[in-house]
Write a structure and sequence with these properties.
It contains twelve helices and 14 strands. With 393 residues, the chain is of the alpha+beta class. α2 packs across α6.
Length: 393
């Protein structure tokens, strides 16, 4: 069997011939009992913190860690998946739904007939949406003439539109709902989200570098990986990072920084039951949507959005959403098993956890735009390598 260095070099050569070079990337995988572990950096920074010590902005790959924190609170009986979130988030009591605009360009709303539940938040079926996902919401923001602050002080300030764009449970739509789940954790525990994660997740699995605030830890800040952008046929250094250098709040939907080692320890902690009870983990790895709408037709999305949502799951493999990520409801040949959990982060960060086969993997880069086609191709080849290595002992 070819080493992954050979696989990478072959792909990298072809990408360069296509005038689409790959950016530096760090790949990692581990199995449940730790008998298989792979971590390696590739690319021109491979000797400069693209190995296991490189600190990456995780963006939306943060969401799984926030979901774990939330489910720990569920296990303690502090919160419940089926209850109205208004109990903990009064900002969302009696939510209203944006339905359109009148001839004066004034927003038209109607009351929601259902409450938002914690399950809705964790499965992106709450009725909330990111501005880039919904044209009505984008038009509302444009008419308001306001942009989100560049360095928001809270989730409520960053996501200030406290209304919905569809009835809770009616469909799937990507949203800031996991940020709000992080606020729930803070309010029921009386701790900042990062403080809670440090005590109940990072310390438990020895994820020593994971943090919302690398600027407060000099040794972590010094190992932050360079950001890159693909511009035409070039990959060049990104001078202005997407995420602000200093952020006051702990944003559970996109604010964590961590290394590959940190993430593999967290993913292994799910597989082994260190972080959550086995029955809780099993529940997370099941489809939870009331309807497949929103995930039943990848073709309705742009290629970059499709790649960010489904990453390496093929279009002909059915999908739903579990608690914490996308679920492939059929096995992917030569790769992940049925009901594996997966998600991504804006700078082409990707992860998957295969509960049935006891394996997890991660792809970390700092490349924009998101959903890079070459990144997905490399991720797919890496996943094939991991399963081939495991199957061949």
């Amino acid at each position: 069997m070819a080493s992954f260095d050979e696989v990478f070099n072959s792909l990298s050569h072809r990408f360069r011939e296509d005038n689409q070079p790959i950016s530096p990337v760090t790949l990692g995988a581990i199995n449940k009992d730790g008998t298989f572990r792979f971590v390696k950096g590739f690319g021109k920074e491979s000797d400069n913190y693209t190995g296991s010590d490189g600190v990456h902005w995780l963006a939306s790959s943060t969401k799984l860690v926030t979901t774990i924190a939330t489910m720990q609170c569920v296990e303690r009986g502090q919160i419940d998946l089926s209850n109205d979130i208004a109990k903990w988030l009064p900002e969302w009591k009696d939510p209203k739904i944006l339905t359109g605009f009148n001839e004066k360009n004034e927003a038209i709303f109607k009351p929601a007939t259902k409450p938002i539940t914690l399950r809705h938040l964790l499965t992106h079926s709450s009725g909330m949406a990111y501005v880039f996902m919904d044209p009505l919401l984008a038009r509302y923001q444009e008419l308001q003439g306001k942009q989100a602050p560049s360095s928001p002080r809270s989730v409520a300030e960053k996501f200030s539109q406290h209304f919905l764009v569809f009835e809770p449970g009616e469909r799937w739509m990507y949203s800031p709902s996991i940020d709000w789940a992080g606020v729930v954790v803070e309010r029921v525990t009386g701790m900042k989200l990062g403080e809670y994660m440090q005590r109940h997740i990072f310390d438990v699995v020895s994820a020593k570098d994971a943090t919302f605030h690398p600027e407060k830890r000099e040794e972590v800040q010094a190992r932050k990986v360079t950001s890159w952008e693909r511009v035409g046929q070039r990959v060049q250094e990104l001078k202005q990072p997407y995420w602000p250098e200093r952020v006051e709040a702990d944003f559970g939907g996109g604010g964590l920084f961590a290394t590959v080692d940190d993430l593999l320890k967290i993913y292994q902690g799910l597989l082994t039951g260190q972080l959550l009870r086995p029955e809780t983990v099993k529940e997370m790895f099941q489809p939870h949507l009331e309807t497949p709408k929103g995930l039943d037709n990848p073709a309705e999305y742009s290629l970059s959005s499709r790649n960010a949502i489904w990453n390496s799951v093929p279009d002909d493999v059915s999908a739903s959403f579990g608690i914490g990520g996308l679920i492939n409801t059929a096995a992917v040949p030569k790769r992940r098993g049925v009901n594996s959990l997966t998600w991504s982060g804006l700078p082409n960060c990707y992860w998957w956890i295969d509960l049935n086969n006891g394996v997890a993997g991660v792809y970390l880069s700092q490349l924009v735009p998101t959903g890079d086609e070459k990144a997905i191709e490399l991720l797919t080849k890496f996943e094939e390598f991991v399963y081939s290595s495991l199957n061949n002992g």
